[in-house]
């Protein structure tokens, strides 16, 4: 296509999208009909069929919903501080947000991906990516808390992440922004992109207990890696990445990265990469990245700074990376449940190419190449192509599968989900979304075993769908019943943050996977754990005061504390003595420049507090825990710096020394 026609095509797409996002699609009021309400209705006291783990976009968090009800169960803090839970504020979790740039209180979480065994969702962990300061987090589904975060060196805009291989061997990440490698000189002119900028792919090994470490990185040409999915079954051992900006532009990408008719899907043979590493072909390179781990028995996180990473060069090792031409700045890159078909979705395309893994293998064997891209062999488009879905819609983004031979693709520009047959490439059905759908999720829909009953669409724009809330309108998702031939919209529900990718699993898989109800007090190894009220104490060492406190329905011990002086740094280490499900206590003290503590049964958490004025400071429990919750309170007296008021602490008695 020549440039003029192409520009016109883009203008047409943009105008189309403007119309579609500002006008109501036809039938939007009666799009929900008949038995829809009944299908989404989960009666009070009844459980949902699926857990849905939804990325929170620029909120940096992950949220957990029930499907089909759309009810919000929990927001799991991952990359952003959360004052509600004290995450990133209490001393125990601050190290989780440490990076090579220091403490980072926010990020942008785009994709969630659940752990798999034999290509099936196994309910152990869910991973999330930090887009801005590149990191991967692991959330443990026994506790629904973030257990580990690893930073990715040589990366920027960690978008193509975190995608998982079929036995959770690796969590894989591709950098969106190519940048000069960390150990090279980054102080170069921006317009030297072609010479100096590199794209790195990270293969993060996941151990038996979920422990993450960067096994290796592959250095690739400077392009934008957008999304990715692992091969499965016959294509296990391969990873597929969509690449755009193969023009290698460094300015006005909306025009300059849309010049070429085709960009690429990059196929990476990671089993081959492993062989090269065994043969000593990798290079240990200096790098600085944080690895943060939350220890469940000390209830505390630690942060370790790593200093090197193993890097393979894609140019030198010719047979690990191959480029497959793919039309128009591909975004989604999805592999069907059999592992044979790879779907590339060009953001600006009006068709969907589907590639065949078998054909790809033949093309490689028979060297059906059309040249090289920056040292990487480019396979002939037709040689790897299974076929194209013709006229599916405008602006395809992402595809999931139902396990019955059907694919479902979202179309941002034409605001719809389209169902098509993977083998025959025939369009079977289409439904409107409200509006501008991005990702979609079918439970297990990117695994070998999808549960093809519901499809959830995550929309970028809501416009007139909900009561207005000022300039910023809510974000939303929509649930469709896909059990029949025709898709049927059954529910709209608002989401926390902007939803991108999501994963879902049958409720029982997660409920019956060793869910924790409380932490065993006997196993608590926190350095300041207080296992009974007799052990509570207040210890001064210089200007530091450590208060070892307990809480249980419905008091803190101690609840009267004196002898704190201006200039002191006070640490409240509070152990929740409860050994019962659903009885957290909260803690906060007047004037704290900090969030509350929310302490789970059997857990110890620490609040750092520096008094700023002489006087009386009440503290109280913030979580309604019993009929006498409102009595769960105490006082702390702050005296001037030179005061002789001794340290005293008590519960239920007035000590003589404390009456002065
Ligand atoms: S993206 S709407 Cu950040 Cu995954 Cu495609
Ligand atoms: Cu403890 Cu309210």
* Chemical compounds bound to the protein: (dicuprio-$l^{3}-sulfanyl)-sulfanyl-copper, dinuclear copper ion
Q: What number is the mean pLDDT?
A: 94
- Return the domain count: 2
Q: Which quaternary structure do these chains form?
A: single chain
Cα distance spanning the termini:
89 Å
Radius of gyration: 27 Å
Record the strand order, biggest sheet. 6-7-8-9-17-18-13-12-11-10
Number of helices: 8
Helix fraction? under 10%
Beta content? 35-45%
Report on this structure.
There is one protein chain. Residues 1-25 have low confidence and may be disordered. The termini are far apart. The chain is mainly beta and 660 residues long. It has 2 domains: 3-511, Methylamine Dehydrogenase, Chain H (7 Propeller), CATH 2.130.10.10; 528-650, Sandwich (Immunoglobulin-like). The chain has a 10-stranded mixed beta sheet with strand order 6-7-8-9-17-18-13-12-11-10. Strands 41-40-43-44-38-45 form a 6-stranded mixed beta sheet, with no helix packed on it. The longest helix has 20 residues, at 3-22. The protein is 9% helix and 43% strand. A hairpin with a 5-residue loop joins strand 10 (160-164) and strand 11 (170-174). It is built from 8 helices and 45 strands.
């Amino acid at each position: 296509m020549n440039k003029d026609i192409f520009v016109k095509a883009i203008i047409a797409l943009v105008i189309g999208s403007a119309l579609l996002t500002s006008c109501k699609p036809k039938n939007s009021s009666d799009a929900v009909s008949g038995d829809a309400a009944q299908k989404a209705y989960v009666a009070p006291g009844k459980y949902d069929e699926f857990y849905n783990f939804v990325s929170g976009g620029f909120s940096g968090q992950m949220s957990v919903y029930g499907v089909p009800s759309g009810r919000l169960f929990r927001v799991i803090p991952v990359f952003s501080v959360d004052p509600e839970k004290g995450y990133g504020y209490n001393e125990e979790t601050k190290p989780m947000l440490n990076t090579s740039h220091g403490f980072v209180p926010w990020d942008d979480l785009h994709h969630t991906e659940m752990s798999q065994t034999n290509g099936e969702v196994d309910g152990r962990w869910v991973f999330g990516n930090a887009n801005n300061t590149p990191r991967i987090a692991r959330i443990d589904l026994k506790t629904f808390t973030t257990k580990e975060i690893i930073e990715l060196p040589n990366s920027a805009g960690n978008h193509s992440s975190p995608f998982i291989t079929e036995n959770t061997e690796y969590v894989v990440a591709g950098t969106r922004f190519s940048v000069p490698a960390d150990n090279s000189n980054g102080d170069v002119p921006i317009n030297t992109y072609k010479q100096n900028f590199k794209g790195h792919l990270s293969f993060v090994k996941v151990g038996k207990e979920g422990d993450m470490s960067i096994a290796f990185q592959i250095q690739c040409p400077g392009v934008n890696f957008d999304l990715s999915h692992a091969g499965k079954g016959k294509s296990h051992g391969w990873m597929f990445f969509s690449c755009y900006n193969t023009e290698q532009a460094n300015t006005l990408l909306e025009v300059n990265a849309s010049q070429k008719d085709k960009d690429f899907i990059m196929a990476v043979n990671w089993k081959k990469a492993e062989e090269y590493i065994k043969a000593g072909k990798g290079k240990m390179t200096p790098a600085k990245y944080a690895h943060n781990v939350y220890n469940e028995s000390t209830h505390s996180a630690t942060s370790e700074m790593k200093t090197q990473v193993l890097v393979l060069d894609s140019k030198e090792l010719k047979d690990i990376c191959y480029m497959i031409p793919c039309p128009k700045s591909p975004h989604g890159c999805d592999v069907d449940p059999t592992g044979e078909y790879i779907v590339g979705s060009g953001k600006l395309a009006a068709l969907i190419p589907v590639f065949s893994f078998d054909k790809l293998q033949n093309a490689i064997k028979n060297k059906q190449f059309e040249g090289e891209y920056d040292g990487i062999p480019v396979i002939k488009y037709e040689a790897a192509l299974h076929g194209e879905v013709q006229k599916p819609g405008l602006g395809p983004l992402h595809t999931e599968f139902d396990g019955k031979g059907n694919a479902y693709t979202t179309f941002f520009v034409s605001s719809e989900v389209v169902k098509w047959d993977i083998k025959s490439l025939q369009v079977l059905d289409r439904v409107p979304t409200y509006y501008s759908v991005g990702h979609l999720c079918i439970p297990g829909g990117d695994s070998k075993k999808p549960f093809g009953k519901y499809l959830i669409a995550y929309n970028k724009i809501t416009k007139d769908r909900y009561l207005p809330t000022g300039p910023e309108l809510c974000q939303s998702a929509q649930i469709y019943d896909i059990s029949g031939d025709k898709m049927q919209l059954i529910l709209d529900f608002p989401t926390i943050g902007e939803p991108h990718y999501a994963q879902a699993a049958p409720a029982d898989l997660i409920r019956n996977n060793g869910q924790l109800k409380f932490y065993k007090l006997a196993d608590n190894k926190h350095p300041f754990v207080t296992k009974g009220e007799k052990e509570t104490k207040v210890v001064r060492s210089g200007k530091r005061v450590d208060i070892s406190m307990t809480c249980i329905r419905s008091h803190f011990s101690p609840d009267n504390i004196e002898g704190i002086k201006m200039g002191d740094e006070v640490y409240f280490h509070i152990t929740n003595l409860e050994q019962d499900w659903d009885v957290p206590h909260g803690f906060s003290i007047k004037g704290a420049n900090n969030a509350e503590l929310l302490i789970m049964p059997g857990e110890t958490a620490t609040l750092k507090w520096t008094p700023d004025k002489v006087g009386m400071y009440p503290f109280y429990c913030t979580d309604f825990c019993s009929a006498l919750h409102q009595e769960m309170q105490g006082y702390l007296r702050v005296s001037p710096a030179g005061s002789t008021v001794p340290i005293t602490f008590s519960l239920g008695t007035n000590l003589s020394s404390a009456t002065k």
